[in-house]
Amino acid sequence: MLVIKNLSKAFHQQAVLKNINLTIETGEIVSILGQSGSGKTTLLNIILGLDQATEGQLFFNNQDITTVPMEKRPFNIVFQDYALFPNLTAYQNLTYGCKKKQVPQNEINELVDLLNLSPHLNKPIQQLSGGQKQRVALGRTLMTKPEILLLDEPLSALDGVIKESIKQKIQEIAKKLNLTVIIVTHDPEEAMTMSDKIVVLDEGTIAQCSTPAEIITQTSNRFVEEFIIQQLTLKQQNIQQLFRQAQGMSYE
């Protein structure tokens, strides 16, 4: 369990996060949702250990990790651009660092099967699709056996069926491994369809922290309503319009 208490962060006396209090249970998928500049990436970096809070504390399994360096925290991240090695094959990327971690071959094989990567192991990274690259990046991170998996905009470069398959794969992995997953996203639809809990940030504060169903039925304030409900409604209208146009029907 990760507990964040009274956390604040300022850069050059400019407040970016303000009195964040949050509890994330083991095995939960939690989305940190917000517009650009809301503080979501800063919060992710503080959890990971890339940055330090100005005030407040972080506890993981009842241990204070506020000042523990990143390399000593049992967390790992998949970055938005995947950060794969272009000169290595999919398998070499996937198993990079395995000798140092002494990961048994049977565990590597299980992860390959879980991620449906068997047909692509010997391919150069340049030959992989966006979804395949994302699965390789996920696998390489999972090889380190993190207790919390952090994902930075994991679906932003993907479209359509590929995006849906990666959503399902992340949920499947979290359930199978009882893995805590924290996702940073600007997309309300991603957060609503992937998460057990959504933390909506607005100008460095938590506007609402609820289940997807509660956000729909018990919206806490005008910002949450406008940012989430209206965006989802607009996206649905756009989908309906495209569908009708594809069917050769008029759309008013």
UniProtKB/TrEMBL annotation:
Molecular function GO terms recorded: ATP binding
Record domain ABC transporter: where: 2-228
Residue stretches in coiled coil: none
ATP-binding recorded as keyword: yes
Entry keyword Transport: yes
InterPro entries assigned to the protein according to its UniProt record, in alphabetical order: AAA+_ATPase, ABC_SmlMolc_Importer, ABC_transporter-like_ATP-bd, ABC_transporter-like_CS, ABC_transpr_FbpC
Key words of the record: ATP-binding, Cell membrane, Ion transport, Iron, Iron transport, Membrane, Nucleotide-binding, Transport
Name of the featured protein: ABC transporter ATP-binding protein
Species per Swiss-Prot/TrEMBL record: Enterococcus alishanensis
